[in-house]
Amino acid sequence: MLPQRNLWVAVLLITGVIGANLYTLEGLPRRVLLDTDVDTDDIFALLYLLKQNRSELEVEAVTINANAWTDAGHSVNQIYDILYMMGRDDIAVGVGGDGGILEDGTVLPNVGGFLPIIEQGISTVGYCRYRQAIPVGSRGRLDLDANYGIRKAFLPQGRRKYTPLGQPTAQQVMIEEISEGPITVFLIGAHTNFAIFLMSNPHLKKNIEHIYVMGGGVRSKNPTGCCPKNAGSSSCVPQQCGDHGNLYTAYASNPNAEFNMFGDPFAAYQVFHSGIPITLVPLDATDTIPISEKFFDTFEQNQNTYEAQYCFQSLKISRDTWFGNQFYTSYFMWDSLAAGVATSIMLNSHDNHDGENEFAEMEYMNITVVTSNKPYGMHDGSNPFFDDRRAPKFNLKKGGVHSGHVQTGLRDPFCIVKNGKGKCQDGYTAEVTGPEAVRVLVATKAKPSQETNSLLDTEFYKSFLSTLNRPQHTGRFSFRSQFPYYKEVLYKPDFGSKTLGKPVVFDMDMSAGDFLALFYLLKVPVEVINLKAIIVSPTGWANAATIDVIYDLLHMMGRDDIQVGLGDLFAMNQSDPSFSAVGDCKYIKAIPHGSGGFLDSDTLYGLARTLPRSPRSRRR
């Protein structure tokens, strides 16, 4: 009997240990990795997540999607500054990488995600097949890289910054954080980084508990671009009205895709077909929660924390620079609603399979992501996965769903229908049946407020404002409170009776060599060369928002008198004839996005952060 008794004791001990471990795991916070393109609404989502109770939900890492609305060098430093403001320098940040994909489909380490997978070669040089739909200037990458000038005016600056050869890559951070154990992934940009991770590390999929995605449009009907109900038949031409997607720059060729999915349709397909449970917050839901005027006014009156102030200032300048008077009907709570739905589902229950949450109605749908257009099996030069290859890349199926025509640009003739809407579906999150269908939990509509007399008519409006303004996990300071004695002073030299030399205008593209030349010109005696102005050409080695580095350098040198002008955002004949804010990258595609290219030029190899802040930042 003694051996049997000892056996039962051992069983009880083992059961107790396992039970204790299960209890401990359930008592731990849910770990989160956020992959973001650092658009304005992404910032709202990030701050909303950082304000959650850390004993329940812990943001472990942020990786940056570098082929969408912002450029890597600018966005990574903004993330560092936001985390510093929030006292979260413990959060890992990953961006870029110089790895590539071989012709045979072998994925090398540290692919940077600068390019969609279909354009990714062995370097960071490549074509802007999908990204050309994003404006380069106003209300696009120029404004968002600088957050309309608010980033440098408001955010404090800590010790962390982009450093060449020292910056963790997106893939390094994903591998490290996901290897540590169960984690939930939030995707609120294009899916390139995470798709590359899944393709390279299938053994780590088991650690991913769930994927929450903001993007796509399933049954959505775009409420923007519609004619007023009382408009005459000849006075108004509907634009995006009723489309599934929101590509306001490309609806004539693709009315079906949403920007995040269109950024890399093949990557999104890999994520959706990974076998990992997915919850999708698409345009179907976000179109039902615009930034209303009442919400805006209430937000303006409730800015009790630094993070609330930063969000409101960002929202206000977005409104002030929006298209005409359409802001309150066409700017939605995209990524922030996704963050709210995800956190509510996660915190409601560990077994919340139906996605019960406070903020959105949910429904299961069978979905896929369209990556090419029928007829499949065609070879028209648009599809590098199949064209001019003995065997399809990544062992894709001949004649399969990836083998059709792939949209090549905004005005792809294949996609244009004369006197009709475009027919391309690249990036469309379509409802399907059969083997391509993936069962996805989908948010369909924002839930109304439970308070009938509330000024805020959805539940998430209230949650967003109360969360940002709660005193727990609040920001420590802004730039002004970090440096209370800072004054905005312009330093202009008094040349007195000096005989000034030859007046010079310097045209530069903001490469590192150009900055050395600028230093030289500033050090030459003014009796020899009188530098009067600088013209910045943003069609070369740096992105347009890097103009702020010039302002800072001139401020350091006491030459705030020198005028700085921003040149054309596109090379000759490269802007779109119908929508000049977007265009092709025929020439600039030769410049690397990663090391030695845009990433290093935009940050001046990490040295731009050491310059003093000029009052003359690029503000609207």
From TrEMBL:
GO molecular function: hydrolase activity, hydrolyzing N-glycosyl compounds
Superkingdom, natural source: Eukaryota
Transmembrane segments: none
InterPro entries: Inosine/uridine_hydrolase_dom, Ribo_hydro-like
Domain Inosine/uridine-preferring nucleoside hydrolase, chain residue ranges per copy: 32-377
A UniProt-annotated Pfam family: IU_nuc_hydro
Family: Belongs to the IUNH family.
The name this protein goes by in its record: Inosine/uridine-preferring nucleoside hydrolase domain-containing protein
Originating organism: Juglans regia
